[in-house]
Amino acid sequence: MAVASGSSGGRSCFVLGASGETGRVLLRELLARRVFARVTLIGRRRLSLDEETGAAVAVVDFERLSEHAAAFQGHDVGFCCLGTTRAKAGRAGFIRVDRDYVTQAAELARAGGCTHFVLQSSQGANPHSRFLYLRVKGEVENLVQAVGFDRCTILRPAVLLCKRQESRPAEWVTQQFLGVVAWVFPTAYSVPVERVARAMVACVLQPGEGKVKVLENAAIHELGKALPQQGT
Ligand SMILES: NC(=O)c1ccc[n+]([C@@H]2O[C@H](COP(=O)([O-])OP(=O)(O)OC[C@H]3O[C@@H](n4cnc5c(N)ncnc54)[C@H](OP(=O)(O)O)[C@@H]3O)[C@@H](O)[C@H]2O)c1
User: Is 133 tagged catalytic?
Assistant: First the structure.
């Protein structure tokens, strides 16, 4: 499968979570490929000037998101790479960010005219899981689908391979192990953030197949590989 590189026709998008590991790569891809005429970063803080150049920035208070409806107005596509961890935010904080902030943002985006929402979820997302992480991811997938976008693409990556800026020792050990396992099972247990970001870009360049599309880890690898490397 090949995905044509190129523009999404003068359209506009926003990115939630552009300061994170996947979001930063996604932002670089969107700006370098000039996929959209306008890219807006919606986050709780600004990035470095270098990273932001070429994008508009809206700094918002996620606890008062409804007061920032204007930031969500007029975008065709919304990308969401938002998320925290239970270790960092506690149980309630994790649910608040990964489910409530994401759902509220999706609702504001839809009200503002967004037709395609691209959500980075997780492998194993399941609203009935007994594991909090997977349950919340399953719940947010359902809530976002219920918002009623013309198109909703849900990516379910396995463990993300990246050089994480933040220290997460357990995740680092897992990444080292899975980095080796990936030589034998390249698409089963992990995925580089670059490939997730490219799959997110590729899915907006492809024609829609139905209202909701869920991309499991192997499909993310395939779609991410199908988008030509920049400069090729
Ligand atoms: N780690 C994995 O192996 C893995 C695997 C599968 C799926 N996922 C999921 O993939 C998504 C992206 O992961 P990632 O590792 O690329 O993300 P990340 O590096 O942890 O970045 C998360 C983003 O969310 C923002 N954020 C976190 N807490 C926030 C809060 N309280 N208010 C506002 N913004 C907040 C961060 O902003 P700041 O920079 O301001 O903190 C950052 O932009 C997450 O939903 C994650 O659960 C992760």
Answer: yes
Cα(232) to centroid(ligand 1), Å: 30
Give 124-151 pLDDT, tens digit per residue: 999 999 999 999 999 999 999 999 999 9
Nearest residue by C-alpha to atom 7 in ligand 1: 122
Q: How many domains does the chain have?
A: 1
Q: Is residue 2 part of a domain?
A: no
Average pLDDT over residues 12-36: 95
Distance, CA of 190 to CA of 185 (rounded, Å): 9
**7 in any annotated domain:** no
CA 24 → CA 153, 189, 210, distances in Å? 19, 22, 28
Does residue 4 lie in a domain region? no
The pLDDT value recorded for residue 174 is 84
Residue 90 lies in a domain: yes
Give the domain range for residue 94: 12-226
- Continuous H helices in the chain: 21-33, 49-52, 86-95, 102-111, 132-147, 169-181, 193-205, 217-226
Tokens 């994401």 locate to: 102
**Running DSSP on this structure, what letter comes out for residue 228?**
P
Q: Is the distance from CB of 219 to CB of 200 less than 8 angstroms?
A: no
141 lines ligand 1 (CB under 6 A): no
Q: What is the largest CA-CA distance in the chain?
A: 49
pTM, rounded to two decimals: 0.94
